[in-house]
Prior knowledge:
about 55% helix; binds tryptophan
Amino acid sequence: MAKQRILSGVQPTGNLHLGNYLGAIQNWVEIQQDYDSFFCVVDLHAITVPHDPKVLANNTKAIAALYLACGIDLTHSTIFVQSHVKAHSELAWLLNCVTPLNWLERMIQFKEKAQKQGENVSVGLLDYPVLMAADILLYDADKVPVGEDQKQHLELTRDIVIRINDKFGTKKNPVLKMPDPLIRTTGARVMSLTDGTKKMSKSDPSELSRINLLDPPDVLTKKIKKCKTDPERGLEFDNPNRPECNNLLGLYALLSGKPKETVAVECADMGWGQFKPLLTETVIAALEPIQTKYHDIMANPDYLDQVLREGREKADTVANATLKQVKDALGFLPSL
Length: 336
Ligand code: AMP
Ligand code: TRP
């Protein structure tokens, strides 16, 4: 039987942090061999907020290199750049014309990002989830592995599928395949180092709030030394009054590979003075192999170019077939 397909992506806006790794990419690495896996760098999404054209291309390469450095394996997976596959923009337009405006105005991420942008909100920012739906639907993805924050966008994608299939397909011959989200519970929400109630984010103005995958050991040491804690002794999971404690213990468990129960016992009597050096050592050890591999890949640009060229060719073939199917269902005059 053919393997089911998964598709996911990350935006090339700055550095990847532990939230991206533990919430998304580490999960991709674990499940990639069970699926026909597609991972894209979603550069078209990166320009939905004001961006710097001088760094976009390099950031795109860096994210692709990080996919490889984190363990995405080309025998199971295809890595490509979203803007290289033109079908993404074209399907997004077709989906735009069946998506009600008020579905988009309801999106939490849009409301949050729009608030931060003030006067400067682009149509692209509102349309972001439709482009994301196009990314997923072009590949007939069965599952979409993402962090919990993307759940609402997946629901919108599913609503778009229902609508298109209702209007333009039949029960026996649906136009688009219905995808399911794949959200793992551990690591699904990594919180900020400076506020345990806020998620770790690329857009937080404070660098101290996040651990980047490429932070060198001295920076990691400094960030963990300065991170927010509480005045209590003894460390515990799941105490709603101690969000920082829960987050930091969770990071320790995920990065050391120890089960939560083991960590709960190990750290039950520790103070922060004992725990922070332990966490620092664990984070440095977990990131070291990723950083070494990343620097090796970036030192060999021909290799990365080739990975992305081959990825684009494979992605193009799958995406163009779906795009044609949608255009036919919508009644367009075929181009000869
Ligand atoms: P983004 O940084 O918005 O491009 O997100 C890329 C992927 O990382 C998505 O699957 C997100 O759900 C996931 N992600 C981002 N921030 C976090 C976080 N703080 N905790 C867990 N997952 C996250
Ligand atoms: N919106 C996703 C995020 O910020 C990134 C993304 C774009 C994506 N297209 C996608 C994720 C398709 C999964 C599938 O995390």
